[in-house]
Each structure stands twice: as C-alpha cells, then as structure tokens.
Amino acid sequence: MAEVAVFGYGTVGSGVVEVIDNNAELMKQRGADLHVKYVLDIRDFSDDPISSRLVKDVDVIINDPEISVVCETMGGATFAYEYSKKALEKGISVCTSNKELVEAKGAELMEIAKAHGCNYLFEASVGGGIPLIRTINEALTAERIDRIYGILNGTTNYILTKMDENGADFADVLKEAQELGYAEKDPTADVEGHDACRKIAILASLVSGKKVNWTDIETEGITKIDTEDFKYAKELGCSIKLIAMCDFNDGCSAMVSPRLITADSPLNSVKGVFNGVLVHSDMLDDSMYYGRGAGKLATASAVVADAFECVHFAGKEVGRGWSSETLKLCDPGEMKGRFFVRVENTGAEEAAKVLGATEILKHEKETGLVSAEMTGNDFKNKLSGLSGVIKFIRF
Ligand code: NDP
Ligand code: HSE
After folding, report:
1. pLDDT band at 158 (very low <50, low <70, confident <90, very high)
2. Residue 344 pairs with which residues in a beta bridge?
3. What are the φ and ψ backbone dihedral angles of 71, each rounded to 5 degrees?
4. Range with the lowest mean pLDDT among 43-47, 67-71, 297-301, 389-393?
5. How far is the CA of 294 from the centre of ligand 2 (A)?
6. Which of 239, 243, 296, 353 has its CA 20 to 30 A from that of 130?
7. What whole-number distance in Å separates Cα of residue 55 and Cα of residue 315?
C-alpha cells in the first residue's frame, strides 16, 4: 500500500481524500493501492472524520518513511514551496493543483524531484479536471504544437455565461462562484486574468521547454465587460470569453484577453465552469480538450491521477518539464486580429473609415464597429487618433 499525505484540506484537498476513499479499490485493481495517512492543515476539523489523520507539523509527514506521495492542495508560493521542496528532497513525489507555484518554481521543483528519484506532477494546475498536461506530454509527444487557444479559467467563464444568459450582475455571480469553490482565495487572480495567464505560461513552458514568465504575458481580465457588450455580441452572433493563447509560429507570442467568439467556434458553446482548449499541431491538426475547469472532485481527480502515476511508476521519471532558462516572448502587438470597437455616435463615421469597419451596429447613443484585420500595434495607433472611443474587445 502507498501512503499519501494531503497538504491543505480545502476544496481540492478534501476532494482528493474523497476520490481516494471512493475509488481506492478500482485504482488498486489498476496497479496502485493508495491510502491517505495524513492531512496537513492549519484549520481544525474536529467534526470531520478526517480529524484523526490531521496533523499540524509538516515534519511529522516528511519524516515518516511510509509516505511516498504528497498531494499539495494548499495554494500559494511560500509554505507550499517550502513543504514541497522538503518532501521532494526526501524522495517523496509531489502532485499539485497549485498553478501559482508551478509557474513560479516548477522548473526548480522538477529538478529537485529528478535529483531525488521522485516526481513533481501538476496535471490539475491547468484546466482543472481536463487531462491536458498528460495529453501534451504523452498523446501529443510526436507533434509539434504551434498554437494553444482556449478558456482556462472556470470562474470567469461561469461569470461571463451567467451575465450573457441571465443578465446577471458581475458581483453576484462572482460570489456564487466563490461559494461553489471555483474562485481563487483572492478572486482578483481570476477576474483580472492572472490565473488564466499563469496557466497559459505553464502550457507555453511545457511546449517550449523553457520558462515562460506569466508577468511577460500581456493580460487583461473581464472586469470591464458590461451588459452593453453582450448586446453587441448577440447582434454579431458571438459570445464573450476570456481567452488565453500562445502561438509558436514565429517565436512565441502569448496573450490573455476577453474576446468575441463567433458561433462557428467550438469555444462558443463552452459554458459555465467548463474550460475548452484548442491545440493545433503539425500532424494531428486541431484537437480540442473540454471539461470542468474548476471545482472539488474534478480537480481532485486530476491530482489523484498524478498520485496514481507516481506510485505505479515509482522510481521512474514521469512526464516532461522545462528548464529555468527564460523564453523571451515576441511583441504581442505584432499579432494580427480584428477588433470590436464601441464609439460615441459623433465619432462613429470617422472611426469606421479609419478602422476599415466591416460591420457597423448603430445603437441609440453609440455605435459598435468591427475593424478590418490588422496588428494590435497598428490598431492602437489608429485608435489613438479617434475621438469618442468607449472601449474595444478583440475578436
Ligand atoms: P482552499 O483555500 O479551499 O484550500 C486550501 C487549504 O489549505 C485551506 O484549508 C487552507 O487553510 C490550507 N492552508 C493554507 N496554508 C496552509 C499552510 N501553510 N499549512 C497548512 N494548511 C494550509 O483552496 P482550494 O482547494 O480551492 O485550492 C487549492 C489550490 O488548488 C490552489 O493553488 C488553487 O489555485 C488550486 N486549484 C483550485 C481549484 C478549485 O476549483 N478550487 C481548481 C484547480 C486548482 P486556510 O483556509 O485557513 O488558509
Ligand atoms: N480559480 C480557478 C478557476 C480554479 O476558476 O479556473 C481552477 O484552476
């Protein structure tokens, strides 16, 4: 039997215990017999059956020779880093859902794991329960991936869907997403796009083999999206999604921003907490990955699948990582696209001419325009000379 410790008994950590308790027999038949020996948390759970396995001192776990895997579901990049490092240095594999830590210290922790004959795995850090990291590492191993484009944050997709379908208020839906356990401890990370940005940085690092810093990626969240935007989107037959993307066609470009998604895109119908990711590669062409991007059991399932791998392939290096060398990104302003622009009626005619508008939607006091295709830099130059511009959203 492989003894497992869970660091952090919150939404995901309690899910890890539930998944192992429920499906231990099945996993045993498939080659790994997992049992949760300890749970580490700063909180007390006196009324929870877990209380007999709860410890407060990480060293009790690290110094127990029976422990072979830690599931780190604490979050943050301070204690989680310190404890993960300690575990790996003892040869204990660590499986995590913590994208903040994977993005910041993944390369180092994977190196430490390698040096100590264990693994640092992070399937749940991107796309919640969607098996995307393993797919890139294994199923797409003969592919040259040149583009990843998709919805990588469940909270914001949940908010945008409810705003779109029910005209719901941003703050109310965010509260719901928090109650459902989807949001980050500080939900600014979700709504300002930082969480999706960290996830695309992890994917870009995995594909390129070099570290992509999330702070190098141009990122815009969803806080400025309002009900009027959804009205225009509907007229255009579009939905609005927070899209994270990276493109390797000429160097590496990456960006996170809200975008209008046309009805013919498979991402248009990705709703609620679900994530959807389109991967383009040279042999396979397009493939798409879809599933719950956040939430207790979906995310926990991905953490436990990693724990299974660590036990089943004990002593072997599982998966691939990236080096600590930083990958320099291209100017995101050189990426081409179309732009939806809202402009006061007084400036609409001039804006339509300058931007080569292909669609013009007249509202009472303002006009919505769809620009011709151009680079982001070109667009911003043109926009700076216009008057009455309210906002723009990318296509
Ligand atoms: P929670 O806040 O629900 O759970 C974290 C738990 O760890 C809390 O009980 C927390 O206690 C405890 N904890 C924090 N610091 C320490 C510490 N130093 N020592 C011991 N225990 C500690 O978070 P989630 O389960 O939602 O998320 C965990 C991680 O998984 C995060 O990195 C998150 O980004 C990631 N993730 C979350 C998903 C989700 O759907 N929720 C999906 C995918 C990834 P306290 O509350 O007192 O701080
Ligand atoms: N807050 C994150 C989300 C959790 O909503 O996608 C999953 O990583």
Report:
1. very high
2. 366
3. -105, 110
4. 43-47
5. 5
6. 239
7. 27
Strand (E) or helix (H) holding 265: none
Q: Is 51 helix (H, G, I), strand (E, B) or coil?
A: helix
Q: If you search the block for the tokens 């980050």, which residue do you land on?
A: 184
Which tens digit of pLDDT belongs to each residue from 114-138? 999 999 999 999 999 999 999 999 9
Ligand 2 centroid vs 55 CA: distance in angstroms? Answer: 27
What residue owns the CA closest to ligand 1's atom 4?
10
What are the φ and ψ backbone dihedral angles of 83, each rounded to 5 degrees? -70, -40
Shortest-distance Cα residue to atom 4 of ligand 2: 294
Closest atom of ligand 1 to CA, residue 185: 2
Tokens 């959203």 map to which residue?
393
Question: How far, in Å, CA of 61 to CA of 268, rounded?
Answer: 45
Proximal ligand: closest to the CA of 8: 1
Q: Whose CA is nearest to atom 24 of ligand 1?
A: 11
Q: Distance, CA 130 to ligand 2 centroid (Å)?
A: 12
DSSP 267: G
> Coil, strand or helix: which one is 100?
helix
Helix (H), strand (E) at residue 255: strand 253-262
Looking at the CA of 194, which ligand is closest? 2
Distances in Å between the Cα of 56 and the Cα atoms of 95, 113, 166, 250 are: 20, 24, 44, 50
What's the rounded Cα separation, in Å, for the pair 2 and 24? 11
Q: Which residues contact 349 (CB under 8 A, 6 or more apart)?
A: none
* Domains, the chain: 2-129+296-312 (3.40.50.720), 135-292 (3.30.360.10), 335-394 (3.30.70.1150)
Q: What is the DSSP string of 307-356?
A: HHHHHHTTTS--S----SSBPPPPPGGG-EE-EEEEEEHHHHHHHHHHTT
Let me know: does 275 contact 150? Beta carbons within 8 Å. Answer: yes
8 A C-beta contact, residue 191 and residue 222: yes
Which of 280, 269, 276 has the alpha carbon at shortest distance from 244? 276
- Do residues 241 and 355 make contact, with C-beta atoms less than 8 angstroms apart? no
Structure tokens at 377: 């830099």
Q: How far apart are CA 149 and CA 279, in angstroms?
A: 7
Question: What does the pLDDT look like over 322-358, one tens digit per residue?
Answer: 999 999 999 999 999 999 999 999 999 999 999 999 9
With beta carbons less than 8 A apart as the criterion, state whether 217 and 194 touch: no
The reply to whether the predicted model has a pTM over 0.90 is yes
